[in-house]
């Protein structure tokens, strides 16, 4: 027992030495952030190794740390079944994006087709109907950048105001917004359309952008964040030093709010990128369509009389549509996971 | 969420401004952009829709004031009630299944007993990033009895399953919605579980509590708080069911998904295909009112439970 422990210690130091060597190997880091990230990753690896060692020890001694219990293969297997369910349609999508239209309708769904046509499909997606898919992609980006970007900005400022100021009407704002979260977005879209039609805004990008600017959920998140992340004493100190409210907000509060901003931005981006009902009713001109409407229109083409079935393009286009969001979620998972956790603390 | 308000007030009890008598308008400096757009996008449209719902456009005489005629017509509209019953049934069956799955998943993740926890957390959340249109398209192709996965299944087993038949359509849609939102709800549950201090588990373990007792006595009560949020969001979501049936409509044979399959599809078709926007406005208002009443009723009930 004791020998195995010393051996474990020995290997640990050896591994650490190796890491130190790696560190020296890296030499002058290109970016300070990169070095910090590498150090963080090394730290995490070390923690994971220590925890694994602790689990092994506790398995032998019978005493288990509640913060680091033994892993269960049975539970992993059962949960794994659900993960399969979650991932299976995505796997299906990737596989079928590589098929030609004849292969798509004739070969087994989870097997590859007779030819590997992913590149051909991608080219066709972007050239079909004079490259309208590219236009839809740019439209979606426009709606996301202006709409979701604006929504994030308004939510940051509003949430900050709600958390850090006692202004007249604050309670009313709060009550109205909580009520607004309960109003179904789609029930609202019909009235919005009626009003926008009256103002002549339908069938323009504004009809898509302006309603996207309001995110009650984003405001709620930012309110909680501002409440937790920005200490009132810091603001007072800045004010005593003579900084204006705007300057205090820009130089002191904004940097502290960064993780919350990423979370809020991510959720408003998803809401705008995935919106289907709003553009469906607001936009008639296919030149202003976002991806979601465009894809559905391509899919419907198979049903119209004399329409050519282009399901391979629908599937490949769908894949192109979801990849940016999945990449964003994977790259920023540290932020949104901690962001949602902060939201839950408050509840 | 009303509870949040009071707790926020407590945390911030003493105002930053020491002079309590002076009214502090500074907050509006940051609040006004949101407030202005909010009024334009939320308040004005609702008021305008209420106004519109009192009118009717007639063949002769154009748009005339009709009082409550649109609402009276709504009460006698069998198609509206059919669609409302359908989403109510959908809500009663789908929401509990989805939330139970989410809660179980969150408990499994929080138990710290899974191999590869990070992978599980991210992969179950991934469907949330997929647009409803793409989800409906994917599942629609998979459901296809001609060349989808269901067709392959039928080939192997010699059966003739058809998920897209009128009888199973609602189940098929329920599966799509469950697929889309289980991970999202799981994350909300999971986030609230991670806020439980670990010392509580240690204390429970020392007192001789087993894993199941910890789940029942510590974790389940904690989940109840976030349950109110997820239930309300889910109810709102299923009452405004639109995207999935609307996309599937062109993928299923014949008239399986009617133009009045859900209240929202009905309102959409009335106002954009039928040119009856006044009637659709009345329907939108009634739907918003029904949803809000149910959401508040559920919220109140769960709040009362928490008070105990």
Short summary of the structure?
The complex is a heterodimer of chains A (347) and B (308). With 347 residues, chain A is mainly alpha-helical.
Folded structure, characterized:
The complex is a heterodimer of chains A (347) and B (308). In chain A, 78% of the residues lie in helices and 0% in strands. Chain A is mainly α and 347 residues long. Chain A folds into 3 domains: 2-61, no CATH class; 73-106, no CATH class; 118-346, MetI-like (MetI-like fold, Orthogonal Bundle), CATH 1.10.3720. The longest helix of chain A is centred in the middle third of the chain and has 47 residues, at 118-164. By secondary structure, chain B is an all-alpha fold. Chain B folds into 2 domains: 25-67, no CATH class; 77-307, MetI-like (MetI-like fold). Chain B has 13 helices and 2 strands. Chain B has a two-stranded antiparallel sheet. In chain B, a hairpin with a 3-residue loop joins strand 1 (55-58) and strand 2. In chain B, helix 2 (28-52) crosses helix 13 (277-307), helix 4 runs parallel beside helix 8 and helix 12 runs antiparallel to helix 13. Chain B is globular, with a radius of gyration of 24 Å. Mean pLDDT of chain B is 82; it is low at 1-15. At the A-B interface, helix 3, helix 4, helix 5, helix 6 and helix 7 of A face helix 1, helix 2, helix 4, helix 5 and helix 6 of B.
Shape field of chain B:
globular
CATH superfamily of the largest domain in chain A: MetI-like
Beta strands of chain A, count: 0
Cα-to-Cα separation, first versus last residue of chain B = 17 Å
The total of beta strands of chain B comes to 2
CATH architecture of the largest domain in chain B: Orthogonal Bundle
Give the CA-CA distance, first to last residue of chain A. Answer: 47 Å
């Amino acid at each position: 027992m004791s020998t195995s422990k010393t051996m474990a210690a020995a290997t640990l130091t050896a591994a650490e030495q190796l890491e130190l060597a790696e560190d020296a190997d890296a030499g002058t880091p290109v970016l300070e952030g990169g070095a910090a990230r590498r150090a963080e990753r090394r730290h995490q690896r070390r923690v994971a190794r220590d925890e694994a060692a602790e689990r092994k020890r506790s398995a032998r001694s019978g005493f288990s740390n509640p913060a680091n219990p033994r892993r269960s293969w049975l539970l992993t297997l059962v949960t794994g079944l659900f993960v399969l369910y979650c991932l299976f349609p995505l796997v299906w999508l990737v596989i079928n994006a590589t098929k030609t239209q004849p292969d798509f309708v004739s070969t087994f769904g989870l097997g590859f087709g007779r030819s590997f046509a992913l590149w051909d499909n991608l080219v066709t997606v972007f050239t079909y109907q004079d490259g309208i898919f590219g236009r839809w992609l740019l439209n979606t980006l426009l709606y996301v950048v202006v709409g979701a970007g604006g929504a994030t900005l308004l939510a940051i400022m509003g949430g900050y105001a709600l958390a850090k100021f006692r202004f007249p009407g604050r309670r009313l704002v709060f009550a109205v917004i909580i009520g607004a979260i309960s109003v179904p977005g789609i029930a609202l879209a019909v009235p919005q359309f009626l009003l926008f039609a009256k103002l002549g805004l339908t069938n323009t990008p504004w009809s898509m952008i302006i309603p996207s600017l309001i995110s009650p959920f984003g405001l709620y998140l930012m309110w909680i964040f501002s409440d937790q992340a920005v200490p009132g004493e810091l603001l007072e100190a800045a004010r005593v030093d003579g900084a204006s409210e705007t300057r205090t907000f820009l130089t002191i509060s904004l940097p502290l709010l960064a993780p919350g901003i990423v979370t809020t931005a991510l959720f408003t981006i998803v809401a705008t990128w995935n919106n289907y009902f709003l553009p469906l009713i607001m936009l008639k001109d296919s030149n202003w369509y976002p991806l979601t409407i465009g894809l559905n229109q391509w899919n419907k083409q198979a049903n119209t009389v004399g329409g050519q079935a282009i399901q391979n393009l629908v599937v490949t286009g769908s894949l192109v549509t979801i990849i940016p969001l999945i990449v964003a979620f994977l790259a920023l998972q540290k932020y949104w996971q901690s962001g949602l956790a902060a939201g839950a603390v408050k509840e | 969420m009303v509870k949040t308000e009071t707790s926020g007030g407590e945390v911030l009890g003493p105002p930053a401004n020491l002079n309590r008598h002076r009214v502090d308008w500074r907050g509006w400096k940051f609040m006004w952009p949101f407030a202005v757009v909010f009024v334009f996008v939320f308040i004005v449209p609702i008021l305008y829709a209420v106004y519109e719902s009192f009118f009717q456009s007639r063949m002769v005489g154009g748009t005339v004031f009709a009082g409550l005629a649109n609402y009276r017509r709504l009460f006698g509209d069998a198609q509206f009630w059919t669609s409302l019953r359908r989403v109510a049934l959908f809500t009663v069956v789908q929401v509990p299944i989805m939330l139970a799955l989410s809660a179980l998943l969150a408990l499994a993740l929080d138990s710290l007993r899974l191999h590869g926890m990070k992978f599980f957390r991210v992969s179950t959340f991934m469907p949330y990033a997929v647009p409803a249109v793409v989800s409906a398209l994917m599942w629609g192709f998979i459901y296809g009895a001609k060349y989808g996965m269901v067709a392959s299944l039928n080939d192997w087993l010699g059966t003739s399953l058809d998920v897209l038949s009128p009888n199973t359509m609602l189940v098929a849609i329920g599966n799509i919605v469950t697929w889309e939102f289980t991970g999202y709800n799981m994350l909300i549950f999971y986030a609230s579980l991670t806020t439980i201090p670990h010392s509580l588990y240690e204390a429970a373990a020392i007192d001789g509590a087993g894993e199941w007792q910890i789940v029942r006595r510590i974790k389940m009560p904690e989940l109840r708080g976030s349950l109110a949020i997820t239930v309300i969001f889910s109810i709102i979501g299923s009452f405004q069911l639109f995207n999935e049936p609307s996309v599937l409509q062109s993928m299923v044979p014949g008239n399986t998904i009617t133009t009045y399959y859900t209240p929202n599809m009905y309102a959409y078709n009335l106002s954009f295909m039928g040119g009856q926007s006044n009637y659709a406005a009345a329907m939108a208002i009634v739907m918003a009112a029904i949803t809000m009443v149910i959401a508040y009723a559920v919220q109140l009930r769960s709040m009362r439970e928490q008070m105990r």
